[in-house]
Please model this.
Amino acid sequence: MPPTITAFANSPDRGKGQARDMRVRWALEEVGQTYDVRLVSFAAMKEPAHLALHPFGQIPTYEDGDLALFESGAIVLHIAERRAGLLPTEPNARARAITWMFAALSTLEPPIVELGMAMLFERDKGWYAERLPMLQDRVRVRLGELSRRLGDADWLDRAFSAGDLMMVTVLRRLNASGLLDAYPDIAAYVARGEARPAFRRAFDAQLAVFKAAPAS
Model:
């Protein structure tokens, strides 16, 4: 039996590939692992059956036999450790790839998500105009640091790895912000990730769910 992941039945990202099941789909596609998807509504995510899989009532989850996991980073790491294609075999390179996974989730994603949430939900607040430049500057600091490290390399540490997969999915959250325009090397890096056949298959699979969902 293939593993089963959960995803939004009606994703708030409107098919843009931003929901975190995208990371898991992409990882599974990269390693050539077939998988099933169980779609869940927002109401179902708060019911006991789903909370038994994900105590915080979110997606994605991953079920494979008697193993149940939550948190996209943990799931991608599990996939990468089980099947070839996302982690180098050389121990030091493997450790660096895992480090980049943590960097994407712990260092880059928090200020990017905070900026995105402000742009979505705080535009009508009196403090928005003053707060927005501060949030943008926090993201620019991290982008500048990443740009200096990336340089003219295609990937973060020679070959594509799970670290790049996680980093690209995090950086894609800035696609509508315009902030990547000042960092053409990072924009090109994201584009290389998006051009990978496994990414396209994962993106199309997530987009198909949005197209099939009833209008809300």
